[in-house]
Amino acid sequence: MNPISKLFFVILLTICPHQILAKEGSDFIVQACDHTLYKALCVKTLQSDPESHAAANIHILAKVVLKHAASEANQILDQITKLHGQTSDQVIEQCLSDCSENYQDAIDKVEDAQLALESNGYDDLNTWITAAMSNADSCEQGFNDQPGHKSPITDLNNTFSQLCSIVLALTNKLREH
Q1: How far apart are CA 7 and CA 11, in angstroms?
Q2: Which residues have C-beta within 8 Å of that of residue 29, sequence separation ≥ 6?
Q3: What share of the chain is helix, strand, coil (3-state, %, to 5)?
């Protein structure tokens, strides 16, 4: 390689490292997500977060998805609070009140899972994330138990549960190593 070509490559790598190196990171993300039930959401979530682009291991990818699950849970709690003030239906109001408690608990569980991941406590992480998923399911079930009342946050609940499932799949892969 002649000196001009080397200089050009170094300048290009300095200016656009993510575009040049993204293919390798993207392949790693796709390979990691192949072990999940929600591959498309996994890939989309990880590719949207710059922290995962340079990830050298699944631990970092699990950390990123866990961060997104925490963010989703907080957004759901905000949405529940917003909806709670807008309804005059007593049944919906009670369901939203129950969901608020469920998601406050889910947020605590996700925070516990984040601490467990940092200390490689995969069994504890599994327990906390499974509990957080149960909280989301309980929220949704509260609406399902009321005939004629549909949950206004079903899609959000599903996304949260799917992110949690992705975390479990990634950390189960970590256990194998």
Answers
A1: 6
A2: 42, 43, 46, 47, 52, 55, 61
A3: 80, 0, 20
SS (H, E, C) 35-97: CCCCHHHHHHHHHCCHHHHCCCCHHHHHHHHHHHHHHHHHHHHHHHHHHHCCCCCHHHHHHHH
What are 75-124's pLDDT values in tens digits?
999 999 999 889 899 999 999 999 999 999 999 999 999 999 999 999 99
Residue among 135, 114, 128 at smallest CA distance from 70: 114
Confidence of residue 23 (pLDDT cuts 50, 70, 90): very low
Structure tokens belonging to residue 4 = 């001009």
* Residue 53 φ/ψ, nearest 5 degrees: -65, -35
- Say if residues 52 and 46 touch (Cβ distance below 8 Å): yes
Residue 69 · residue 128 · CB < 8 Å = no
* Residues 62, 173: Cα–Cα separation, whole Å: 10
The two three-digit tokens of residue 59, written as one number:
């631990």
